[in-house]
Amino acid sequence: GQQLNQSPQSMFIQEGEDVSMNCTSSSIFNTWLWYKQDPGEGPVLLIALYKAGELTSNGRLTAQFGITRKDSFLNISASIPSDVGIYFCAGLSRTYKYIFGTGTRLKVLA
Amino acid sequence: SAVISQKPSRDICQRGTSLTIQCQVDSQVTMMFWYRQQPGQSLTLIATANQGSEATYESGFVIDKFPISRPNLTFSTLTVSNMSPEDSSIYLCSVDRGMNTEAFFGQGTRLTVV
Predict the structure, then answer these.
(1) A100 Cβ under 8 Å from any chain B Cβ
(2) What is the pLDDT of residues B62-75, one digit of tens each?
(3) DSSP string, B21-37
(4) Is any Cβ of chain B less than 8 angstroms from the Cβ of A42?
(5) Which residues lie across from B43 on neighbouring strands?
(6) Is the pLDDT of residue B99 over 70?
């Protein structure tokens, strides 16, 4: 099925560093969501974006809905060890189905 | 948000058998979805579980292999039929309270077929 492209695929960073990841699509979405998945768990919603250009924060996390509605970005500031996990973006299609990104695997080195 | 409980959380099954996964939500929801997440991969939508009617399946998934029930607005089941090792995956239930809102997930069912 259709998937969104996320980059980077994986990243190793030092504790305290800032992290940036993005998600791109060939299709327009009206809603963008960012999730984090820990091992053995289901994805947990971090941030939801509803409007082109919107910038939303949740603690150390900030996400933006791209102006073209074909991309979104997630930034994590001052990373800590518990930020480790897989981050997925998701776009809500016109047929009200959630299309998920390929995922960014984050590892934080203490 | 919604509290979503999935059972079982994990299982090891023999090939050729079937497993039914249950999804219970703490409140009535409009949309319920079933996803498959193969090892190291992203989430792929299997079907939308419709209350009172047959589920809507995505390309590559068929009702004979993945029968779904949705008897009411808080409960759904997914059966993985005639399992083979290729069915080893995490199966996730997801809900959405209405159109154009956030999707929430259960903790998933980790299935291993031997």
Answers:
(1) yes
(2) 999 999 999 999 99
(3) EEEEESS--SEEEEEEE
(4) yes
(5) none
(6) no
